[in-house]
């Protein structure tokens, strides 16, 4: 199966959903941590994963349990579950001016309370996530981040290669007598070592270190995360199918002992 065929058949799941920082200005928390969340909403259930970079909490809620929690917090609500889930999703991913988020954590659970409005009426909801399986930290954050760093380094090296090629192109123009009439546009040949040294001694580098990676999941980072995890899932799926086919072939073609 090709990657294109796999993508046509694949249904996005939580793995390919990028992390998003909770908007700090709208969070009231019992700690000063920075929280990242990712979620996947369907017609009648959702998956929710949250971390403070130390602990990971996960919840999957559907069916009667989901309806019961909604009714406990909003006894008079009358709306289809798909509409309610859409309200919860929007309040989490794009909180409005009147949306309030409250976080309460412990080592083994986290409660994220959302106060918003649905059809002009107050609407409340609480995510109640327990400690996530250990592999979720690896699969949803550690490995994708390492892949993102590797890809960004590859892109940087490609840009350096293009800059070097541009410098050679400019030198060729000059050798043929070309002149730059606007001196303000003239640049020195690119020096990779000097560039790297200037970056790590710049004020911008110091400011970035102070954020402890909070900008990793801006819009560009989210898109790169989505592409990397989707490509990784496709590779794993195709590899699993190849292994399954090989196992089937071995079962159907046992080796005949030679005399």
TrEMBL record:
Q: CDD domains in the record, alphabetically?
A: HD_XLF_N (cd22285)
Q: Which keywords, in A-to-Z order, does the entry hold?
A: DNA damage, DNA repair, DNA-binding, Nucleus
Q: Name one Pfam family in it.
A: XLF_CC
Location of the protein in the cell: Nucleus
Name all XLF-like coiled-coil region domain ranges. 139-180
**Listed GO biological process terms:** double-strand break repair via nonhomologous end joining
Q: Does the keyword Phosphoprotein apply?
A: no
Q: Which GO terms describe its molecular function?
A: DNA end binding
Q: Which family does it belong to?
A: Belongs to the XRCC4-XLF family. XLF subfamily.
- Matches recorded under PANTHER family: NON-HOMOLOGOUS END-JOINING FACTOR 1 (PTHR32235:SF1)
Q: Which GO terms describe its cellular component?
A: DNA ligase IV complex
Name listed for the protein in its UniProt record: Non-homologous end-joining factor 1
Residue intervals of the XLF-like N-terminal domain: 18-128
């Amino acid at each position: 199966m090709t990657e294109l065929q796999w993508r046509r058949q694949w249904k996005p799941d939580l793995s390919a959903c990028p992390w998003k920082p909770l908007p700090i200005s709208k969070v009231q928390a019992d700690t000063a941590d920075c929280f990242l969340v990712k979620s996947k909403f369907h017609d009648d259930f959702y998956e929710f994963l949250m971390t403070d970079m130390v602990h990971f909490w996960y919840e999957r809620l559907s069916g009667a349990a989901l309806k019961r929690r909604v009714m406990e917090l909003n006894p008079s609500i009358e709306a289809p579950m798909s509409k309610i889930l859409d309200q919860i999703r929007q309040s989490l991913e794009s909180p409005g001016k009147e949306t309030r988020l409250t976080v309460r954590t412990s080592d083994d659970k986290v409660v994220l309370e959302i106060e918003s409005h649905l059809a002009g009426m107050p609407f409340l909801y609480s995510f109640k996530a327990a400690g996530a399986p250990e592999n979720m930290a690896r699969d949803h954050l550690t490995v994708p981040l390492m892949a993102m760093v590797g890809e960004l380094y590859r892109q940087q090296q490609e840009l350096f290669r293009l800059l070097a090629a541009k410098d050679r192109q400019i030198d060729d123009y000059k050798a043929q007598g070309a002149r730059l009439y606007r001196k303000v546009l003239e640049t020195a040949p690119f020096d990779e070592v000097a560039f790297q040294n200037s970056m790590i001694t710049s004020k911008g580098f110091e400011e970035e270190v102070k954020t402890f990676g909070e900008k990793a999941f801006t819009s560009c980072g989210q898109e790169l995360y989505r592409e990397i995890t989707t490509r990784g899932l496709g590779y794993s799926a195709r590899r699993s199918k190849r292994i399954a086919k090989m196992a089937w072939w071995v079962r159907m073609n046992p080796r005949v002992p030679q005399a």
